[in-house]
Write a structure and sequence with these properties.
Chain B: Belongs to the HypD family. Chain B: It holds the Pfam family HypD. Chain B: Keywords: Iron, Metal-binding. Chain B: One of its GO terms (biological process) is protein maturation. The complex is a heterodimer. By secondary structure, chain A is an alpha+beta fold. Chain A has one helix and five strands. Chain A has a five-stranded antiparallel beta sheet, with no helix packed on it. In chain A, a hairpin with a 2-residue loop joins strand 2 (17-22) and strand 3. The N and C termini of chain A lie far apart (30 Å). By secondary structure, chain B is α/β, with parallel strands linked by helices. Chain B has three domains: 12-61 and 187-194 and 201-246, Rossmann fold; 71-173 and 258-304, HypD, alpha/beta domain 2 (Rossmann fold), CATH 3.40.50; 318-363, no CATH class. Chain B has a five-stranded parallel beta sheet with strand order 2-1-7-8-9, sandwiched between helices. Chain B is globular and about 65 Å long. Chain B starts with 9 loop residues before the first helix and ends with a helix. Classes of the chains: A alpha+beta, B alpha/beta. At the A-B interface, strand 1, strand 4, strand 5 and helix 1 of A face helix 1, helix 2, helix 6, helix 7 and helix 9 of B. The structure holds iron/sulfur cluster. Iron/sulfur cluster binds at residues 316-319, 322, 329, 332, 334-335, 339, 345-346, 348-349, 356 of chain B.
Chain lengths: 75, 370
Amino acid sequence: MCLAMPVRVTELIPGELARVDIDGVSREVSVALIDAPEVGDYLILHVGYAIGRLDAAEAERTLALMRELAAGGEA
Amino acid sequence: MKFVDEFRDGKLAREIAAQIGAIARPDREYRLMEFCGGHTHAIARYGLTGLLPANIRLIHGPGCPVCVLPIGRIDGAIRLALEHQVILACYGDTLRVPASGGMTLFKARAAGADVRMVYSVADALALARDNPAREVVFFAIGFETTTPPTALALKAAKAEQLGNFSVYCNHVLTPPAMRHLLAGGDVQLDGFIGPSHVSTVIGSAPYEAVARDYAKPVVIAGFEPLDVLQSVAMLIEAINAGRSDVGNQFSRAVSREGNARAQAVVADTLVLRERFDWRGLGAVPASALAISPAYAEYDAERRFGLTDTRVPDHKACECGAILRGQKTPEQCKVFAIACTPDTPLGACMVSSEGACAAHYHYGRFTRNPT
Ligand code: SF4
């Protein structure tokens, strides 16, 4: 039950809700735990609530570090 | 899926694993505990132990909320449903967890109890609104990830004066459990693969004292296979260098401070319990949350006068030793014989994040003769 997944906000709905895209499926979820959510944000969805935000630039940085590590660099 | 597929690249995984083999010292063992059931599941599903050198041991920790729920608390939920005749709203994973006398919520339902599976606590609130003549209790379980939604539900219930709604609160906390494992001294560990989503909420700061006090490094790790492998590499480097700090591999979602908004709703509605019984770990001080006095009217324990009973686990079940990292599922005599996902004897076999269920489903990739 701890499995959570990344979703993309497609529409903000009054009442601290949002419509999100989950791998092609659209769903209404709560964004009450997110500061200033915006359309286009990637959020981590867990039991119907977004609990955090994903940062695309940090994700890229992590992938770059992984490639470096794979090539024999530091972790 | 963005943020998922790129972290599952098999070729990169094998290359990173090879590098881990190069930095791990052959003359020692590295015992790393993945605290979280989400990691247990990912490690089993992607066969990650098979990619790593044999002297890196991944030990399943107690971070599966269903697995650590003691029998007495499940008995309490069953009593609410059968004796108090409430509508019991619960997450699906809790339905098959064995309670006293072979009872489960699933069997209670067959015996006439009104047990409803919900995906979210918002669904439990909706049940209360739709059934004003019935008592609706939400069976709240989980670590710091499911806690903020429960807290929001308490706020909503109070704002709406939803008099027929209450929460049976069983939320537990990660850092005190880590501390308890290390303080026991009977679990030999060199470092922790730290939870990703829990840390999204609480941040990386709460692990700093644990890492420092017990001189064990913690690396907060994402749930995808490349995340786990990179985190293992970071831990090996820290251990080799004699460092015991907190690393953050899951920086795409975790900050040092965590989600302040989520922390605030939890602080508003819930308070620390003095102690809480964990299946497998026993009583752990200051490791769980109860409903704060300001929300007492929404506390199912008070409303229905539930008292805590201590019930020993099934005699054959080794969940306790497994959750402490002392045994592997294969070392349980009834594993895959009397205890299977269809007929679980212990909680570790119930949820797909439980160590025994993960081994059962993906065993052919991970079985090793330890
Ligand atoms: S196999 Fe079943 S009985 Fe054995 S430790 Fe796992 S859950 Fe418990």
